[in-house]
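Quick one:
INPUT:
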């Protein structure tokens, strides 16, 4: 079977003046799951395309696929200041494909998996997969080729005979095979961001929370470190790449795994430069792990936000203190860090705004992203607050970007943050 996989993401990661265009690593893992003895797989990455619809049409006509997978990386760029909604372009790609061929079209990806039913209804593919789609997509391809049933596969989204959208839970993948990167412009991606993505562990990537517990049970899969080392070695040998990005939500969690990985990078003499996310968990950021990270090649960490959608249960200081401690430890270890602060969240006041600005001035990160408003997701406290204040209604379709900004700061917060970013070249307003 000829299978065409299309990565529709064309958005840069919002890191201000740093050009950050992430490679479609998730789609590369999907390609890696497909049996090369049974399927001829082609990957179409539209990130750098000047004419993405024309390129889509040419590829479909030339390759003549029997099955097409379309990956949606993001719903939008999560920017109040420069809002870009991703779904219309993805729908254009799907409709272009459908105008050429009647073969099954399957949608998936991290963006799709956040709101599977709503995305399925908007995009109108033949099928969808919610969650980590590696095994499920491979099983679907095999089933379609052999004429077997597939509707009961994990994560499948489809319309039943009555027209109702049905979802078979969420799909959860493993690291069955390494990603197929041979059809991606790897050299260009290395120059267009923080490095080529490498995944070391899998958690619940489709929840609103950041995994921050210091134990292995927070993760569904911890990848064997030998496999990680082999993948990095392959990036060097096959593509000449020396810059990677560990894209897990918290490199330092679990702590023992992080230390072992750092030692293994050094033992293998990989000599790579790498960046990562760092969970603001002080107990998982001891001096040893940060020293090991620096010695193993860590150049920059993005300190994630531990807070979930229950910030009303925490004081602002209790949320900032773990970040402060971790940033101080990074300073001591000589590791540069990036942080983000959200302004306008539920409960925001003039006092909390000034506290957050004072905090940023205190810690002096290499780069700070000042984010205006909270992207509203369904069934969250922020959505409840937005409905109560009349920002959205119960009927709002939240697959399109809508932002909550607390009423006490709503009229002046943008101007206040603009004045701050204009005087600090390392601060970006997003």
């Amino acid at each position: 079977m000829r299978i065409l996989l299309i990565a529709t993401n064309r958005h840069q990661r919002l890191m201000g003046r740093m050009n950050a265009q992430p490679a479609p690593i998730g789609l590369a893992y999907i390609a890696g799951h497909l049996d090369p003895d049974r399927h001829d797989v082609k990957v179409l990455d539209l990130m750098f395309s000047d004419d993405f619809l024309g390129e889509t049409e040419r590829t479909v006509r030339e390759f003549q696929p029997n099955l097409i997978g379309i990956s949606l990386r993001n719903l939008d760029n999560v920017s109040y200041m420069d809002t870009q909604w991703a779904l219309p372009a993805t729908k254009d790609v799907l409709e272009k494909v459908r105008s050429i061929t009647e073969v099954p079209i399957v949608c998936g990806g991290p963006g799709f998996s956040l709101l599977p039913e709503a995305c399925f209804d908007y995009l109108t593919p033949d099928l969808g997969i919610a969650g980590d789609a590696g095994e499920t997509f491979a099983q679907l391809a095999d089933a379609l080729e052999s004429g077997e049933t597939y509707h009961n596969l994990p994560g499948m989204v489809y319309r039943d005979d009555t027209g109702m959208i049905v979802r078979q839970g969420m799909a959860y993948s493993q690291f069955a095979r390494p990603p197929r990167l041979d059809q991606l412009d790897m050299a260009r991606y290395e120059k267009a961001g923080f490095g080529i993505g490498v995944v070391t562990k899998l958690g619940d990537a489709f929840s609103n929370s950041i995994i921050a517990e210091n134990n292995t049970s927070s993760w569904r899969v911890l990848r064997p470190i030998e496999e990680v080392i082999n993948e990095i070695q392959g990036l060097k040998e096959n593509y000449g790449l020396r810059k990677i990005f560990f894209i897990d939500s918290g490199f330092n969690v679990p702590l023992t795994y992080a230390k072992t990985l750092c030692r293994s990078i050094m033992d293998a003499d990989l000599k790579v430069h790498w960046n990562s996310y760092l969970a603001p968990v002080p107990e998982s950021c001891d001096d040893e792990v940060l020293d090991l990270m620096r010695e193993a090649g860590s150049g920059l960490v993005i300190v994630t936000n531990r807070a979930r959608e229950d910030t009303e249960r925490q004081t602002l200081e209790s949320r900032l203190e773990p970040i402060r401690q971790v940033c101080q430890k990074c300073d001591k270890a000589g590791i540069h860090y990036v942080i983000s602060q959200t302004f306008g969240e539920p409960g925001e006041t003039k006092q909390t705004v000034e506290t957050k600005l004072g905090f940023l001035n205190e810690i002096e990160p290499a780069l700070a992203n000042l984010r205006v408003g909270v992207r509203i997701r369904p069934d969250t406290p922020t959505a409840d607050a937005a409905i109560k204040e009349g920002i959205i209604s119960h009927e709002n379709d939240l697959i399109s970007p809508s932002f909550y900004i607390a009423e006490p700061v709503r009229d002046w917060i943008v101007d206040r943050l603009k004045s701050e970013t204009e005087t600090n070249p390392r601060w970006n307003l997003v």
